[in-house]
Specification:
By secondary structure, the protein is an alpha/beta fold. The chain is 48% helix and 15% strand. Strands 1, 4, 7, 8, 11, 12, 13, 14, 18 and 19 form a ten-stranded mixed sheet that branches. A six-stranded parallel sheet has the order 22-21-20-23-24-25, with helices on both faces. Strands 15-17-16 form a three-stranded antiparallel sheet. It binds ligand 26Q.
Length: 820
Amino acid sequence: MKRSNFKVRKKNDRVSLTEDIRNHVIYSLSKEVKDASEWDAGKALALALRDRLVERMIETRDRYRRVKAKRMYYFSIEYLLGRCLGNNLCNMEILDLCEDIFKDLGYDLDEVRASERDPALGNGGLGRLAACFLDSLATLDLPGCGYGIHYEYGLFRQSIHNGYQKELADYWMKEGMPLQVARPDQSVIVPLYGRVESAATPSGDYLPMWVDWDDIIGVPYDIPVVGYGGKTVNYLRLFAARASENFDMDIFNHGDYIRAVQRKIESEMVSKVLYPTESVSFGKELRLVQEYFLVACGLRDITRRFLAQNKNFEEFADYVAIQLNDTHPALTVVELMRYLVDERRIEWDKAWEITRATCAYTNHTLLPEALELWSVSLIEKVLPRHLQIIYEINSRFLKKVESKYPADNEKLRRMSLICEDGTKKVRMANLAVVGSHSVNGVSELHSELVKTRLFPDFYEFAPQKFNNKTNGVTPRRWMLKANPALAALLTDTLGKGWITDLNELHKLEEHINDSEFRARFMEAKRTNKIKLGNFINSTLDINIPPDSIFDIQAKRIHEYKRQLLNVLHVIHLYLELVDNDVEPSCSRAFLFAGKAAPGYWEAKQIIKLIHSVAKVINNDPRAEGLLKVAFLPDYRVSLAEKIVPACDVSEQISTAGTEASGTGNMKFAMNGALTVGTYDGANIEMLEEVGQDNFYLFGLKQEEVEKALREGSYHPREIYNHSPEIRQVFTALLENRFSPDEPDLFRWLVDKLLTDNEQYMHLADFKSYSEAQKRIDRDYAEKEIWAAKAILNTARMGKFSTDRTMLEYAEDIWKIKAVK
Ligand code: 26Q
């Protein structure tokens, strides 16, 4: 029987949109049009938009079904989406039209957009990368969707009191989330706890039975993801945990109804809150349950969809690819094995082949403390059957290793999925590597280090699995939406092609000697700086002259990212000015933004230090017009959209070998900032693209860092003894010039940075950092030179669009094709 194709009916013209907005005010909000507030109008617009997205989402699904397309499912514990309204309007190319319609109705769309809360269902880079991927997948008409958790509370909001970070709960759906589509009919049941009973099949085979489990319901909510041009609408499917209606019969039978209900309600904790840290949460049972919840919900959904079109699981990997965003969803490997072997009765070797052909794993970190380990006893308690399967996977795998390397016990110990030092733990990274056909890092350098430092044994064992996929960012949100001033100039100069083919920006180089173009480019930058300056002025009461260099470090606060190096240099410049009478040749504003994990003491002290330094410098008349320092609270996607377009100098100064890739670095450079950066992560590839003259490189290389730390030859005190600049900075800190009311407040950091083999080698790079900063000062003073460098940064960032990244994943790993 031939199915008829779904037709999209809603039009995107002024008449239909206006009509639908009015209808939603009446029929969805139950108000008279004349009584609708600006906010009501915004909500009605969001609903009118939703109608259009939903239609296109159905059409897209229909299109994928018709060709039985292979689909990719991105499994990620985090998605840092940012505001949706403006982004959707941009991608559907109706932003200007809707602004106009709102004006006609007497409202201001900008205000409505500014009142939308960010869905902040992620910590930082990893979650934002997932969101950029979704935008590119839809733009490229690729059948790829996101799976995640519908957290009730997103990443905490940051407020600052007396220079210290305070965390506030982020109930992000307070005003509702008009875009999402609840799908209770597609809910799934997730079992947890219980025990395994061994039985036998009639033919005598081992038949394990997972019994006495508790269950949680996973209810899917779909957030439509519209690609640029508005044709393809994929979705992000987030699962919320709901208590099942089955009561714990034991308690129930004893008549304790309320206690039985209470236990059920506790199960809804699973999707209550996002863990606000990028490590150290291992051991927390709830986090393990969250990871399993995602995996179990996702796989149930996928197998149901697969079964609707196909019965033969031998073909599973021809229709399904699953990408594991770090090890957080690594239990996918085990859950898929359990499903195939226990529920579909497929023999182990076949099931293993299917599982490995389906799964692929991306690593995002080299920091040893961020590698996930879960104690065997905890896994046994929460997922008893899965533990058995992990052991079985391990024993079969180690047999293969042993046959290749007979009697190499050390190798077996290192490659085992079980870490036997102390209490037994499961190494999730080893599980992800063994259970996947592809393992990738997120920049060239990082992918090399994944092979040589993180998984050398696995690389030797199966080198063909390992590959690189350099990160990117979506130019739709980070240029078109965030930087309308620059976007208009680019479209004026090149046409619209750059929006979906960022390499088109290369053509800007033809205009580099056109003085009018240069002036317009710098005028756009100036417009953005004035906007950000006004924002800072109105929120923090700090006045930043638009002609000063906007020097920005915006990212999570972490020692490895070295905000401290930046602050030490700011203090140095200040002391040069007030103690040594050396004026900087350009006025500079040092802007910081970023959250610290609530339990990360050092990171929180760094926030306090920035505020303390800012207070002294901003209130010193001698620094007026020359130096300013500001910390912008509550860094999140919507704040980044204000910051990024206004940046002149982007600080990407991690210790070489610690930042897997970075993506902020790309956003800034795309928008015409110059990078002061180390030879780390994707900085290296950005440098290759823009050339040495357009990038301020400094600092030790990864091999040098590694060698010094390995040999124990880093003695910061020697550097200190030979550097009058560093001594002056440390003396000021120890003399409490930035903490007059709290003596010794910053002694810890002087002590720490002077400790032998200090892990992030701050002082080793200080001199070369400060020299790079001097070069920046000199170049910025030459307006025309600077403009050319800024333009070349925008022109040469084509590689760093997630469109490129997604096409590489699609071709090399997922084997999926566009369905137009
Ligand atoms: C793990 C277990 C328990 C609790 C939390 C976690 C956890 C959560 C988040 C561990 C790590 C993360 C996030 C890591 C992250 O954001 N990494 C960044 O990924 C970016 C995208 O690839 C890179 O650009 C950054 O360099 C990398 O730091």
